[in-house]
């Protein structure tokens, strides 16, 4: 009689079949495989990262480990593929933990924070069941740290101090190009779109090395061109006479 359902289900002596408890192959469990004797665990399920749409707006059906991991039948835990995490592998990971220079946030949070990215008006999401936003709390990315103000919430066009997909790169000191009559770091009146003005008094742009040097983004230091000096290459070398 299927080993009395291994203590994880009820045995129907008439049909000699098991009705497994939840987590061991119950009818409500989402699983690729269910042991008929309730001897193996099933794993947590989440909306499939892939899957085949069954209708115009019907896709991402529940799947064990969200189709991005392998179920350990002995423990009932998902072993997620690289780049995914969570009990059901239901969310993407942030590269290298944002290198200690940022925080890992969801696509939804990143879109709605006005201080997140310069020249990017905040977006709002519809309901969580909206077919276009099914992954809003599943895809994560790094929001990098900065020692200076960035983003629309600060009225700034400046990029963050740390940047890159894992926040491992460091911008160089900003500066005004000494060979032009225009202050490249002055961003008053600059706009994000034709209809969205982000220019505010004191609004600043970031110009690596004052356009007169090359930035080493691994260290955040400027390598100035000949004739220029300073931490941001914004100073002209004295002319020798």
Structure, explained:
With 241 residues, the chain is mainly β. It has two domains: 2-91, no CATH class; 95-241, no CATH class. 2% of the residues lie in helices and 22% in strands. It is built from one helix and 16 strands. The protein has one helix at residues 107-112; strands spanning 9-12, 17-20, 45-47, 62-64, 69-72, 77-80, 84-85, 91-92, 102-106, 140-144, 162-163, 169-170, 213-216, 221-224, 228-229, 235-236. The strands form eight sheets. A two-stranded antiparallel sheet has the order 1-2. The chain has a two-stranded antiparallel sheet with strand order 3-4. A two-stranded antiparallel ribbon has the order 5-6. The longest helix is centred in the middle third of the chain and has 6 residues, at 107-112. It is elongated, with a radius of gyration of 27 Å. Disulfide bonds join 205-215, 224-233. Keywords: Disulfide bond, EGF-like domain, Repeat. This is EGF-like domain-containing protein. Residues 201-234 form the EGF-like domain.
Distance between the termini: 103 Å
**Overall average pLDDT:** 86
Low-pLDDT residue intervals, each spanning 5 or more residues? none
Largest sheet data: 2 strands, antiparallel
Secondary-structure element order, N to C? EEEEEEEEEHEEEEEEE
Helix/strand/pairing category:
mainly beta
Number of strands: 16
Number of helices: 1
Pfam family, one: EGF_2
InterPro entries: EGF, EGF_extracell, Teneurin
Domain EGF-like: 201-234
Protein name: EGF-like domain-containing protein
């Amino acid at each position: 009689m299927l080993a009395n359902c291994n203590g994880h289900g009820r045995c129907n002596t008439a049909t000699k079949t098991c009705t497994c408890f939840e987590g061991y192959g119950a009818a409500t469990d989402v699983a690729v495989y269910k042991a008929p004797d309730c001897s193996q665990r099933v794993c947590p399920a989440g909306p499939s990262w892939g899957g085949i749409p069954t209708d115009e707006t019907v896709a991402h059906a529940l799947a064990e480990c969200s189709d991005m991991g392998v179920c350990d039948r002995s423990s009932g835990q998902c072993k997620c593929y690289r780049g995914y995490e969570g009990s059901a592998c239901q969310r993407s990971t942030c590269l290298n933990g944002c290198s200690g220079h940022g925080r890992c946030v969801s696509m939804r949070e990143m879109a709605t924070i006005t201080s997140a990215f310069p020249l990017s008006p905040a977006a709002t999401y519809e309901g969580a069941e909206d077919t276009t936003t099914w992954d809003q709390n599943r895809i994560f990315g790094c929001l990098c740290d900065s020692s200076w103000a960035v983003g629309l919430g600060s009225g700034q066009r400046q990029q963050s101090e740390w940047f890159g997909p894992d926040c491992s790169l460091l911008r160089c000191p900003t500066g005004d190009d000494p060979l032009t009559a225009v202050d490249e770091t002055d961003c008053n009146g600059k706009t994000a779109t034709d209809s969205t003005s982000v220019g505010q008094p004191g609004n600043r742009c970031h110009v690596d090395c004052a356009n007169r040097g090359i930035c080493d983004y691994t260290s955040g230091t400027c390598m100035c061109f000949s004739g220029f000096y300073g931490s941001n290459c914004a100073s002209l070398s004295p002319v020798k006479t």
